[in-house]
C-alpha cells in the first residue's frame, strides 16, 4: 500500500514540470521564523512498501523543520479545526487521499512497544518531516505529501506536525466515504533529525513469508491479527506504480484516465472510495487489472487472518467499526500527548450547569396536596444544606425527596395520634 499511497498519489498530484518547479521554490524559500507556542487545553507491509527512490525524489527531499518546527508541545484545538477544513478543500482539488493516509501511517508505524523512552520508541511524533527519514526506502514519494501540507502548517503555527499528519490521514479516510475515526490530538513533535527512528522499522510488501512478516512488524507495535487485517482494508484507496515501488502495472483500464496523473495499478476499481471492495475483490480473484501483493494474498491464505478477511468481505459495517478502532489506535501508539490524555475535536457541548434548588418545585404530587408555605420551603432547604447540598451543588442522593417523605409520615402519625 505504500507503493500506492506514495507512488500513485505523488505522481498524480504533480506533473514532472510542476514537481521541478515546486522543488526549486521549496528549496529556495526561507523558512519561517520559530513561533511562540499556543498552548491548548495505512500500516501494512504494502502500506509501508519499501519503494525505490527516484533521483527526483532524492533531490526534492527537504528538511521541513530545521527552523520552522514549533517550540510548543501541544496543538491549538481551534487551529486544528480550521486546518481540517483546509485539508478538505485540498482533497477536493488534488485527490490526494491515498498519500495523506500513507503519510500518517508511516509517521506512526515506526513504534516499538519494547522501547519505553520517547522519542526512541518511535510512533506519531512528526519525525517524518525531516529529510533523513524521508530518504528511508519505504517513504519514497512522501515528500509530495509534505509539500501539500506545508502551506497549511505555516498557516496554523499552533499545530504540531505530528497532529497535522494524523489529522490529514483521518480526514482523508472520512472524506473518501470511510468511517468516522475516534481521533485525539495534542501530540508532541520531536525537535531534531537526530531523534528520527532508524531505517528498517516499516514492513516490506514481498517478504519470503508474508504472514509471518506482517506479524513480526505489527506485533512489535502491539497490534493483533484483527487489526492487521482491518488496516489492510485501507488498500481500497490508492495505486501502485512500478517505477517507484517495483510493484504493479504501468497502467490499467481503471487508472489510465486518472483522476490526476494517469497510470499505476489499483487494488480496487474505485480507488478513491473507502469501502470493503478490497476484501471482496481479493476473495473473488476475477480481475487481473487489480493489484494483489503477496501480503494482500496472505490475509486470505493464513487461517487466522482469513477469519477477519472473510467477515469484512461480507460485512462492511463490521469492517468500518474495526478499521476505525485500529486506525485510531495506530495513530496514538508511541505518541506523547500534551495534555497527557489528549483531546478530541468533536467533543459534544458542555454539560448544563446544575439546576438551582427551588423547594417549591418539589412540593407537588401526592405527598403534599398544596404549595408549601415559605416557612416549610426554608425548613426543607435548611435540611438539604445540612446534608451538604447547596443551591449550586446538587447532592448525589435525592435528600429533598427523603425529607418530603419524612414530613408526610410525621403528618400521618400526628393525625393518627390525634384521632
From TrEMBL:
Comp. bias regions, Basic and acidic residues: 240-256
Subcellular location, record wording: Plastid, Chloroplast
GO MF annotation list: heme binding; L-ascorbate peroxidase activity; lactoperoxidase activity; metal ion binding
Main subcellular location: plastid
Keyword set includes Transit peptide: yes
GO biological process terms on file: cellular response to oxidative stress; hydrogen peroxide catabolic process; response to reactive oxygen species
Reactions accelerated catalytically: 2 a phenolic donor + H2O2 = 2 a phenolic radical donor + 2 H2O; L-ascorbate + H2O2 = L-dehydroascorbate + 2 H2O
Keyword vocabulary terms for this entry: Calcium, Chloroplast, Heme, Hydrogen peroxide, Iron, Membrane, Metal-binding, Oxidoreductase, Peroxidase, Plastid, Potassium, Transit peptide, Transmembrane, Transmembrane helix
Every Plant heme peroxidase family profile domain range: 100-351
Cofactor dependence: heme b
Coiled-coil positions: none
UniProt region (Disordered), positions on chain: 190-210, 236-262
Family annotation (Pfam families): peroxidase
Transmembrane segments: 399-418
Entry similarity comment: Belongs to the peroxidase family. Ascorbate peroxidase subfamily.
Function: Plays a key role in hydrogen peroxide removal.
GO cellular component term of the entry, any: chloroplast
Name of the featured protein: Plant heme peroxidase family profile domain-containing protein
